[in-house]
């Protein structure tokens, strides 16, 4: 997953102050690639990265965001991403 490599490189560069916001949209929880690794990067990097997993089909135990990505999502600011997810 090329995106993971880029995220990891940014977070592992000590003098890089880039803050990352990642929206990972999938159909099911099983479709999420590198979920444990991505969640670990978020947890272990002092707030430099925030990840939001969004599922279109989810089970009762799913605790993150639910819904489908709306057309034009990528043109919006990621800080407003929760308002742009339909449920």
From TrEMBL:
Keyword Flavoprotein belongs to the record: yes
Q: Which UniProt keywords apply?
A: FAD, Flavoprotein, Oxidoreductase
Q: Its Gene Ontology molecular function terms?
A: FAD binding; oxidoreductase activity
First and last residue of the signal peptide? none
> SUPFAM superfamilies, alphabetically?
Ferredoxin reductase-like, C-terminal NADP-linked domain
- Where's the Oxidoreductase FAD/NAD(P)-binding domain? 2-72
InterPro entries under this entry? Answer: CBR-like, FNR_nucleotide-bd, OxRdtase_FAD/NAD-bd
Keyword presence, Ligase: no
Top-level lineage group: Eukaryota
Q: Hey, which family's this protein in?
A: Belongs to the flavoprotein pyridine nucleotide cytochrome reductase family.
The record's annotation in PANTHER family points to:
NADH-CYTOCHROME B5 REDUCTASE (PTHR19370)
Protein name as it appears in the record:
Oxidoreductase FAD/NAD(P)-binding domain-containing protein
Per the UniProt record, the source organism is Neurospora hispaniola
